[in-house]
Amino acid sequence: MTTSAGSAAQTDAEGAAIRARGLTKRFGQLVAVDHVDLEVPAKHVYGFLGPNGSGKSTTIRMLCGLLMPSDGEIEVLGLKIPAQADALRPHIGYMTQKFSLFEDLTVRENLEFLAAIQGVPKAGTRARIDDLIEQYHFGDLQQQLAGTMSGGQKQRLALACAVIHEPQLLFLDEPTSAVDPESRRDFWEKLFELADIGTTLLVSTHLMDEAERCHRLAILDHGVLVADGTPDELAGKLEGRTFVVESADPRRAQHALTDAPGVLGVAQVGNMLRVLIADDGGDPARRMDEALAHAGVKAGVAPAPPNLEDVFVAATHKGGRDRERAA
Amino acid sequence: MSWRRLWAIVVKELRQMRRDRITLAMILGIPVIQLVLFGYAINTNVRGLATGIADQANTAGSRALVMDMLATGVVAPVARVATPQELMAMIRDGRISVGIAVPPDFERRRIDGREVAQVLVDGSDTAVQGAAAQLAQVPIDSAVPDTRAPLTSTPPTGRISVVAFYNPQRSSALAIVPGLIGVILTMTMVLFTAIAIVRERERGNMELLIATPLTSTELMVGKVLPYVAIGLVQTSVVLALGMWLFDVPIRGGMIAVYLAAGLLILANLALGLLISTRAQSQFQAMQMMIFIFLPSILLSGFMFPFAGMPKVVQWVAEVLPLTHFLRLIRGVMLRGAGLWELWRDVLALAVFTLVMMALAIARFRKRLD
B15 to chain A: which residues are within 8 Å by CB? Predict the structure, then answer.
């Protein structure tokens, strides 16, 4: 685990919204979440990055008390979960991965229902709903059935419903998976507005550009938390290990490099290759030159600043090799 | 328990129901269709069976006997033939269901006290057989006043006529309409609630709901309440049509009828909820509902007499809400009984409701696993 001294101090001052130790969930033989330790600082946008099936949804469901952990301890907003899940519910909002509002109710009816269920004070309900309709741009769509709206509109409505009772903590499970890029940008604006007024947000995603926006993030792979920290911290660890390779024949260069010792990942980006190399001492650039020369490919190798995708490849690759060794 | 959350569920259910045309059509369509089907088409009271007559005696007495048989309305003459053999051939062809054969020595046999006539029946249909048996009941003495018979003599057992109390016209509609209220409520109420919770799970709404402060009791009770109203509407439709189309009497008072219906509605809704907490999909809920519905129809006494069933089957039937409701509603509507006289069945329905509701709430977990 990679919690730096600086962020730990900040966490202590602010208090953590979520703490989990050894969190594990087994479904029969399958270990969906494997001893995850987690600390989500309050008032942050915290990202869960991982491919499909990496245990993001299962972890979120355990954190809000919807699934019983097989093992481990959870504390959310100072409450023991799942024992005190009922006490937690009024303070959290949860936006499910699949649209879970009522498609045969209108925008306003959905908001009215959630306001009553979440116990928004009766006198303030009307004003709160009008407010949300304005904030989330539903002015003309109030009487529209939720099921007939576009993906982006549905997600906006789901968020409006999830925050109707102004929860301290908001769980969002892949909120933008069915949304076009522009709607996604608007959506993230809203998330940061919520963080500004003191809401803690836990957002799962498999999109790099979204993960990059988070204050902090954790990378999950096959149920194991393989890295966590701020995006910059995570990328900083890969300093000196990422390169771009320019070649007239990028396909052949890719072949030559994929099998070279220490190469963790080769991805083609246009006419260039982006290469990530393991940190095992030595001069990685020279090793790559040798591999390319051996294959008879002409190419130029230059160091490049690491990005989050490199972090992701490095983290998940390591996880894969550890598991192979264990098996 | 928060009344506001409970009410929010009720309002949501009603709003969704308003937009669900198939459910709306079922609410009114099922009672109307069933009532017309059972009231008009399905008639256990057989009339107008095609009948052939072979009166070989052709005396005043034999003609009077045949006339008496025809007067019952059970048979309608379609052919007159010379011999019983011709009648048998016609039954085999299916041209007639019943043949009445009077032998040439009719007068002689009547005096001797031997069988005077024969009714030939197409036994392949039990309903026809049962109806034709009535013909054998026609008293011969009334057909021809027999001056030689002593006034004090008791009539032979085969000549005792059947008197039906409470349903003197032997009208099927009269017996079926009260029961039909129960059958319709069993079908629709169990189905609606069985689907109610599963549907939320299938559509993904449940994950949202269980992450809120909503309690199991609020959700369950809120789901049930709108359907109580629907059930009472259906009861009214059947009652109104029953009175209008079939002159079904309500001898024991409207309030008692609605109270009995209300008890059955609650029992079925609670049962539906319990199914709902078990079923994984709407389809499964439907399958489970059939498991309840078929025994209810067959064993409750709606289709076949309760008294005729083996003891073990009767015990099973005692568990079904419809059995108790049938006793209640027939008592109230046809015999003019009050609910306090039928307290055993009232109690049975109430206990059934409470047990099912408690099981449903206990089984429903605010969790996904």
Answer: 104-105, 109
